[in-house]
Amino acid sequence: MKKALKLTGAALALTALSGLSQASTLDTVKERGYLSCGVSTGLPGFSSPDDKGNWSGLDVDVCRAMAAATLGDASKVKYTPLTAKERFTALQSGEIDVLPRNTTWTLTRDTSLGMNFVGVNYYDGQGFMVSKKLGVTSAKELDGATVCIQAGTTTELNMADYFREHNMKYQPIVFDTSAQSVQGFESGRCDMLTSDQSQLYGLRTKLANPNDAIVLPEIISKEPLGPVVRQGDDQWFNIAKWSLYAMVAAEELGVSSANVDAMMKSENPGISRLLGNSGPGGKAMGISDDFAYQIVKQVGNYSESFERNVGKDSPLLIQRGLNALWKDGGIMYVPPFR
Amino acid sequence: MIVNDKTIPSRPAPAANRGVIGWLRENLFATPGNSVLTLIGIAFLLWAIPPILQWAVLEADLFGSDKNACTSEGACWVFVSARFQQFIYGFYPDAELWRVNIFFAEMTAVLVWVLWDKMPKRMWGGIWFLTGFPATSFMLLYGGAFGLEVVDTHKWGGLMLTLVISLVGMVIALPVGILLALGRRSQMPAISSFCTVFIEVWRGLPLITILFMASVMLPLFVPGDIELDKLIRAMIGISLFEAALIAEVIRGGLQAMPKGQYEAADAMGLSYWKGMRLVIMPQVLKISIPGIVNTFVQLFKDTSLVLIIGLFDLLAVMQAGIADVNWPNIAIEAFVFTGFVFWLFCFGMSRYSLSLERKLDTGHKN
């Protein structure tokens, strides 16, 4: 067994080395003519195919933004649907260039898998959904509640911790799939449903009457979700980071896909630097100076992307919450474009 | 002396033994125990069928384009019809769908040609099925020749992908399996040990593990500039796995052959391959039909496992559809429909194998 482990380690190390000696990811992408992007196999709001097979979602917009930044065309993306188990290998083996697949940023993943987390495009966390009829407004009023959970997830452990910490009792009812747990919740077998908040909003749309249920504001775990790139290609790492930042910075400066052409003439030094009319631009990363313009023009700013995919313009109706800009009470904050 | 030169006409059987009543008495109410079971059975059907009918047909919504069309209590088949294109073709581009349709048509034609014994020149049909059909299908579906636009395999999906994977699996697994089975019984130690190890290793691994190896480990071991398509990796894994299963089915058939058949072939002066082809294999394949078809039915259903490596076969497309927030909880409709499609194909295969068995039956049983 030990020997096998060593062998696997050696193989992984070799792959990592061969990864280093390969051409830069940017050159590969430019030569190939499209960006290869790893997404989920269907997660509402983040990456899911519609009935025509077009991918959309918050994570998909990261792919589109990077394609706009590197190739000047947000549509030049090849989406590779990946399951949770194979996502990291697909990145390590070079099958995909970037992995925005609602992946939680943790120390282990960041340091020991040969990958780098680019940033956070959605601050998620475990929450609770209850029926409106209960009249509950906070999770702290839920002493003695029955809870629907999905089997084999860390949510079960997080919840046990939370209830013990607050000296409350609960009765877990475990289901295999999310569709089953929704039915359990709807038929009244449990008082509340727990999962990551973004998922809860997705599950809520599956109820016969979504307005009968509310997602409580409490978050009992930290799940910062963000795109991931291979370690060892700093240029590509930077492109991914600043593509993500450009969307948030555009929202901060009030630049949207609707007004970006007018904003090109803006005298505001911040906007002019963002859109590449002055300041550093994208040259140091090997991409065009107007990469942020291309992103905003073709994909939109972070607010547009959020509202379109998960926010008030989508069936999910997720509030901005933590994902609001720092000046609006959230924690979305990006370094300055200068 | 009275001679009755007319035979007395035979009287009809007693009323209790003929017609509907007779049939009922014989089949459903022969003994008290039998009658009780019949009544229980009828009660169960009366209890189970009406609600299912009501849900699936009477109260179902059939027409419309979005969830607003699903107003009644029953099944919402609108979901299936709204996503029908995706269930059949996956994400294949709209403008190129005719290529998949031609593929379906050619597949049906070739299968009828090969499988229906009234067709002429079935030998050529078989050769076309193994050579021309895969080549034209690849050309049609993938493109890149004759001015056809390349459609990457990540856009393939739905029933089309399920059929492609199973056909490739069957076409490769049967010949490879036969060779492996012959190899395992070979007198040459190198060949027989190789075949034995191959069969035991592949048969001993769960298909999920093989698919994960193919999708996750393989790309790590091959150099970065060789990019093996994920679908091809999955196809190789499935084909070799099924070949190992088929090999064992065939080996069972080989062992059931009386030794006299081998000796007869030798006595006629046939070489090994000729003897196999003319004497042994026709008999072996005949008695192996149930096992082979069983393996193929299994293979057809197993293809849905590719959803764990992110390929959108029929089941995976369905699951992605279930997650769509624009629809209410339609998981039941989706799974019932998927199950029905899988059942249709598997039932067809098993009926065909039954008729084949009857046709090839030469009365050697017992």
TrEMBL record, chain A:
It comes from Parendozoicomonas haliclonae. The keyword Zinc does not apply. Coiled coil: none annotated. SMART domains: PBPb. Residues 34-263 form the Solute-binding protein family 3/N-terminal domain. SUPFAM superfamilies: Periplasmic binding protein-like II. The gene is aapJ_1. Residues 1-23 form the signal peptide. Belongs to the bacterial solute-binding protein 3 family. This is General L-amino acid-binding periplasmic protein AapJ. The keyword Transport applies. Keywords: Signal, Transport. Pfam families: SBP_bac_3. GO terms for biological process: amino acid transport.
Automatic annotation (TrEMBL), chain B:
The keyword Membrane applies. Residues 159-348 form the ABC transmembrane type-1 domain. This is Inner membrane amino-acid ABC transporter permease protein YhdY. One of its GO terms (biological process) is amino acid transport. Pfam families: BPD_transp_1 (PF00528). It is a multi-pass membrane protein. It comes from the Bacteria. It is found in: Cell inner membrane; Cell membrane. GO terms for cellular component: ATP-binding cassette (ABC) transporter complex. Belongs to the binding-protein-dependent transport system permease family. HisMQ subfamily. One of its GO terms (molecular function) is transmembrane transporter activity. The chain crosses the membrane at residues 28-49, 97-116, 128-148, 160-183, 204-222, 234-254, 305-323, 329-349. It comes from Parendozoicomonas haliclonae. Keywords: Amino-acid transport, Cell membrane, Membrane, Transmembrane, Transmembrane helix, Transport. InterPro entries: AA_ABC_transptr_permease_3TM, ArtM/GltK/GlnP/TcyL/YhdX-like, MetI-like, MetI-like_sf.
